[in-house]
Design brief:
Layout (H helix, E strand, L loop, with lengths): L3 H32 L3 H17 L6 H6 L1 E3 L16 E8 L6 H19 L9 H10 L4 E6 L2 H13 L4 E5 L11 E10 H8 L6
Parallel strand pairs: 2-3
Antiparallel strand pairs: 1-4, 2-5, 4-5
Family: Belongs to the PTH2 family.
Pfam families: PTH2
Keywords: Hydrolase, Membrane, Transmembrane, Transmembrane helix
Length: about 210
């Protein structure tokens, strides 16, 4: 038979094990809570980070996407350029004097890209040129290059040169809801067109 002393020793041992387990559980819980904030806390931090980025102009708000407008401009027939051999690309020229944030400039370039594509793929538009689109889409991976121009005056000169050469062209104007004044010409989009032709227009410009 087990003696009273052995029973007490066994009981104390069991109590010690249970106590150690409880301490480990509580310690682990609080360590996890400290190292891994709650979902609501993480969401709050993300919101604060986004708001801070917006204040510095690095993030484009939803309202910017909804209200930016594009300049229609004249549609030109670019089919004569189909005879020019070589790679086809699209060029996006960003105004530097506006000092747009990176997010703002990226959104404006997206507007220009979409506008150019819509014009050149629209069967009812004089700019319709499916052959050029096919060369751009399947020839060299829908190549695009982003360049910079000092001001609107020089942008307008590039725009006129592009039209005179039969290059599909588009100027994006901002609605003025953030960062810059309403109606500001932000990005000039050119192409898709043969690289050789676009280089005649923008070959002297620096990368953005």
């Amino acid at each position: 038979m087990r003696t009273f002393s052995s029973v007490m020793a066994s009981t104390q041992s069991t109590t010690t094990v249970i106590t150690a387990c409880l301490i480990s559980f509580v310690t682990g819980y609080y360590v996890k809570s400290w190292l891994m904030p709650s979902k609501s806390s993480r969401k709050s931090k993300r919101r604060s980070s986004i708001e801070a980025s917006r204040n510095t102009g690095d993030v484009e708000s939803v309202s910017d996407y909804e209200y930016d407008t594009e300049s229609d401009g004249p549609d030109v027939d670019s089919r004569e350029l189909n005879q020019v051999p070589g790679d086809v690309k699209m060029v996006l020229v960003v105004r530097q004097d506006l000092k747009m944030g990176k997010g703002k400039a990226a959104a404006q370039c997206s507007h220009a890209t979409l506008a150019l594509y819509k014009k050149i793929t629209n069967p009812t538009s004089p700019a319709f040129n499916p052959e050029m689109v096919q060369r751009w889409e399947y020839g060299n991976g829908q190549a695009k290059i982003t360049l910079q121009v000092p001001n609107q005056e020089e942008m307008d000169i590039l725009f006129a040169q592009a039209l005179s050469l039969g290059v599909n062209a588009y100027i994006v104007h901002d609605a003025g809801r953030t960062q810059i004044a309403a109606g500001s010409a932000t990005v000039l989009g050119l192409g898709p067109a043969p690289k050789a032709v676009l280089d005649e227009i923008t070959g002297s410009l620096k990368l953005y």
